[in-house]
Design brief:
The complex is a heterodimer of chains A (about 290) and B (about 280).
Chain A: E1 19-22, H1 28-34, E2 41-44, H2 54-65, E3 68-71, H3 85-98, E4 102-106, E5 109-112, E6 115-121, H4 127-144, E7 149-151, H5 166-177, E8 180-184, H6 185-195, H7 199-205, E9 211-217, E10 220-224, E11 227-231, H8 240-253, E12 258-261, H9 269-287
Parallel strand pairs in A: 1-2, 1-12, 2-3, 3-4, 4-7, 7-8, 8-9, 9-12
Antiparallel strand pairs in A: 5-6, 10-11
Chain B: H1 4-16, H2 34-56, H3 58-64, H4 66-79, H5 94-99, H6 110-124, H7 134-137, E1 149-152, E2 157-161, H8 165-171, E3 187-192, E4 199-202, H9 205-215, H10 220-230, H11 236-245, E5 249-254, E6 257-259
Antiparallel strand pairs in B: 1-5, 2-3, 3-4, 5-6
Classes of the chains: A alpha/beta (about 290), B mainly alpha (about 280).
Chain lengths: ~290, ~280
């Protein structure tokens, strides 16, 4: 196994440990008119892969005032087959164009041979999958010439084959490839409910130094055959239970940039800003020492 | 235990080939059936891809209604799932699919409307470049005007049909005017996004022939002569003026020199985004 730690990108403004918001075209006008601060924005990398379009002009304007994070959904780091070079090339082109402070992807797969599922499918946590993911993260970081972050997925099933606890799987990927971690605390809650896993054990099991970003989002409670299944649909406010997990996570990981994700049933920008303000007040409390680790 | 590739091929088969057999041994049921668990993922794939198609093909959706659209989209996704990449690039084959879709046979123009919507989608995502105008062209000395080549804007697309696709599209806009549609007429459409909005223009077929000649590298004089030879009534000077006014050209070329849109040309490398 190759151990290859690419240099961190130091020549960019790092995102401060404040809240950010997932950028939606519906909110371009509001943001450019009112320029709310402090704030940063995250976009889905694929949404900007086309050569042009009005959304590129808006993103250029927003980039003049804010730090950006590029969050990919189609690289399919967990594929059993090779990575798609065209997605890597297009990601690199965007990185050169917009110089984002963070670049991230998911611990999942979404491509089989040439078919794209447009979904984040879970991996069996096996030694083979771990080797494959580390190789793909290495390849990605070498190609992009920068560090990426890998996010924990929400899942609706578990595999018979899995032998490695998820948090150990994450620690290993980051230690062997030099990537950072993006911890989605809503996904932790969704998985905790769906698979009756212990969330605190997961958080305490992660090496805090590896975590560079947190995601916060809403979920939907679904019923299948009378059994509750939580779906990570990014379509509502962050639930109180997830805010509690967020506090627990910050106590363990320290203050890191924290993103409000809202992708379906999109509300007015003010609602997202209010969620971001709530995250900021928790971050401020942490920095003032009220939440310092015992 | 299967290797990772075999494991993922089983899940692929359950999604796109309806074969769940190989997944049974992979997944812990935990109170539900394996099929129910996989259905959560499969539904997400089909629902989000249908949404992506409905964003690209709003007029098709309006013409056939949401239920029929969802049905057609599901059949299409099953047959032609996307390649890895942005969702805005998914669905180029939808028009051809609709042409051959038995259930939509009673609406023969559906495929051509879809071709127009796809061309508009491509135009929307093309490179951002300000078009040139008549004033830019006036830089060309009169004696060599005919030898200039006009370069088509990256957002330029065309759509032609034996059906009145232009009127059908107009009629089905949210703020569309009530137009009387004559189903005995065809349509020749220019699609262009000079700035923010994708515009469509109904033109005579000679305009499209003229533009295709320019696109193939013919200079103004050659393209005019060849178009006038097949359509003597074609007024080339007027056509160039009209085409300039709708922003069809991004630059002109004299011999080997490319003259860009000087008046917009900013310092720095991202001029396309700063206009």
């Amino acid at each position: 196994m190759t151990i290859n730690v690419p240099p961190r990108v130091f020549d960019l403004t790092p995102i401060p440990a404040v809240a950010g918001i997932g950028l939606k075209s519906e909110h371009f006008k509001d943001i450019l008119k009112n320029k709310p601060k402090p704030l940063w924005f995250e976009v889905h990398t694929e949404n900007y892969m086309s050569d042009g379009g009005p959304h590129h002009k808006r993103l250029t304007d927003i980039r003049n005032d804010y730090c950006l994070s590029f969050h990919g959904v189609s690289l399919s780091i967990g594929s059993g087959g090779p990575l798609n070079l065209s997605i890597l090339e297009r990601t690199k082109k965007l990185i050169n164009r917009y110089e984002p402070s963070l670049v991230s992807e998911h611990l999942s797969w979404s491509v089989f041979e040439q078919t794209y599922f447009n979904d984040l499918l879970p991996l069996p946590y096996t030694e083979e999958a771990l080797r494959m993911v580390i190789d793909h993260v290495n390849q990605t970081q070498n190609f992009l010439n920068r560090q990426i972050l890998i996010e924990n997925p929400s899942t609706y099933l578990q595999f018979v084959e899995s032998t490695i606890p998820e948090h150990e799987f994450f620690n290993e990927i980051a230690r062997k490839s030099g990537c950072g971690l993006l911890v989605d605390v809503n996904n932790l809650y969704v998985n905790g409910k769906n698979h009756k896993t212990n969330i605190e054990d997961w958080i305490n099991g992660i090496d805090p130094q590896l975590v560079q970003e947190i995601h916060l989002a809403g979920h939907h409670v679904n019923k299948v055959d009378g059994q509750e299944i939580l779906i990570d649909d990014h379509g509502s406010r962050v639930s109180e239970a997830v805010w509690d997990i967020y506090e627990t996570a910050l106590k363990h990981f320290g203050a890191v940039p924290s993103l409000i994700e809202w992708d379906t049933r999109l509300p007015a920008f003010d609602i997202l800003k209010a969620e971001a303000d709530k995250a900021n007040s928790i971050l401020t409390r942490l920095e003032e020492g009220d939440m310092r680790l015992a | 235990m299967p290797d990772l590739f075999t494991h993922q091929s089983a899940i692929f088969a359950s999604h796109f080939e309806g074969d769940v057999k190989a997944t049974e041994k992979l997944i812990i049921p935990d109170g539900l059936s394996v099929t129910q668990r996989l259905a959560i993922y499969k539904n997400n794939t089909f629902i989000t891809l249908t949404e992506a198609l409905s964003k690209t093909y709003p007029v098709i959706q309006k013409l056939v209604g949401s239920d029929f659209f969802d049905y057609a989209a599901r059949e299409f996704i099953q047959k032609s799932p996307p390649l890895p990449g942005p969702l805005s690039e998914y669905g180029s084959g939808f028009a051809d699919f609709l042409d051959g879709f038995e259930a939509a046979k009673s609406i023969p123009y559906l495929g051509d409307v879809a071709r127009l919507e796809w061309a508009m989608n491509v135009s929307y995502h093309a490179e951002n470049i300000p078009p040139i105008n008549a004033q830019d062209l006036s830089q060309i000395p009169e004696d060599i005007f005919g030898s200039a080549c006009l370069i088509l804007h990256p957002s330029y697309q065309t759509a032609t049909s034996e059906y009145p696709v232009f009127d059908i599209w107009q009629y089905n806009q949210p703020d569309g005017e009530t137009v009387e549609i004559n189903f005995n007429t065809g349509s020749n459409i220019l699609i262009i996004r000079p700035d923010e909005r994708v515009n469509i223009h109904s033109v005579n077929i000679e305009f499209i022939k003229f533009l295709r000649l320019l696109e193939s590298g013919k200079n103004i004089e050659q393209a005019c002569a060849l178009t006038e030879a097949i359509a003597p009534e074609f007024d080339c000077v007027r056509a160039v003026v009209e085409l300039l006014s709708i922003g069809i050209f991004s630059e002109f070329q004299l011999n080997d020199r490319i003259i860009p849109q000087n008046k917009y040309h900013n310092e720095g490398n991202n001029h396309a985004d700063n206009n």
